[in-house]
Automatic annotation (TrEMBL):
SUPFAM superfamilies: P-loop containing nucleoside triphosphate hydrolases (SSF52540). Coiled coil: none annotated. Belongs to the ABC transporter superfamily. Keywords: ATP-binding, Nodulation, Nucleotide-binding, Transport. This is ABC-2 type transport system ATP-binding protein. Residues 3-233 form the ABC transporter domain. It holds the Pfam family ABC_tran.
Length: 242
């Protein structure tokens, strides 16, 4: 399923934070939303997930407007926020079952979906463990499993690897890429880390609320006359990306 943002602008009070942002996410692709701290990535996620109300522009999922048919559009979205949102004292299974209930899944369907996702994320053996006993990488995997319980077509991840060590970051990133490949999931992965982005990815460069580029990494380098993604980012924004 495609996600289309058209002419999205947003202000906190009088401060413009997103200015006329338009892009389309293609079905089954991994898209990197690349921008330094303060670029507006979390604000964009807030709008995509309806935590924030759209002020200008619209967002459509498979043609369904988030503004006009929010419930139908939101059913297609799974989200992993920057801050860990699991209950540490509940078990992995309880966290998933609670979330499945919020999405209106029956107990039976919820149990089946939990088992499927835990298996896929190699977490079945941890189902009865309180989340507090899991390391950071495993907690993040539980959050992604949870976001996929209702079988959304689009997965949004806001800096999901913050706080993880390098090997866990790489594993998580590879895992999500595999989901695109296996399930045709459309992914938007926000990051300020260039090493999480690959030249074949569709890369959206957000800087001070403006979308400066929306192309794959090869085109990005070609268009900026550079030979690496880090140099391309610097050429576009005048800033270093970490
Ligand atoms: N609730 C708020 N009220 C006022 N200004 C805000 C609010 N939230 C964010 N901002 C400002 O909006 C701008 C964009 O912030 P946002 O969090 O969307 O960026 P970001 O790219 O996600 O950065 P980070 O990686 O640091 O979260 C920043 O200048 C920030 O200070």
């Amino acid at each position: 399923m495609t996600l289309e943002a058209s002419s999205v602008s947003f202000r906190y009070g009088r401060e413009p934070v997103l200015s006329d942002v338009s892009f389309t996410l293609t079905e089954g692709r991994f898209h990197a939303l690349l921008g330094p701290n303060g670029a507006g990535k979390s604000t964009l996620f807030g709008l995509l997930t309806r935590l924030l109300a759209l002020q200008q522009g619209d967002i459509r999922l498979g043609g369904v407007s988030l503004k006009k048919q929010p419930a139908a559009a939101m059913r297609q979205i799974g989200v992993v926020f920057q801050q860990n949102a699991l209950d540490l004292d509940l078990t992995v299974q309880q966290n998933l079952m609670y979330h499945a209930g919020l999405h209106g899944l029956s107990r039976k369907t919820a149990r089946n979906r939990c088992a499927q996702e835990l298996e896929r994320f190699k977490l079945s053996a941890r189902a009865k463990d309180p989340v507090r006993q899991l390391n950071g990488g495993h907690r993040r995997r539980v959050e992604i499993a949870r976001a996929l319980l209702h079988q959304p077509a689009v997965l949004l991840l806001d800096e999901p690897s913050v706080g993880l060590d390098v090997p866990s970051r790489e594993t998580l990133n590879a895992h999500v890429r595999q989901l695109c490949h296996d399930d045709g999931l459309t992914v938007l992965w926000a990051t300020h880390l260039i090493e999480e982005v690959q030249p074949d990815d569709q890369i959206l460069v957000l800087h001070r609320g403006h979308l400066l580029a929306d192309s794959n990494g090869h085109e990005l380098c070609q268009n900026t006359g550079t030979s690496s993604l880090a140099d391309a980012f610097r050429a576009l924004t005048g800033e270093d990306v970490s």
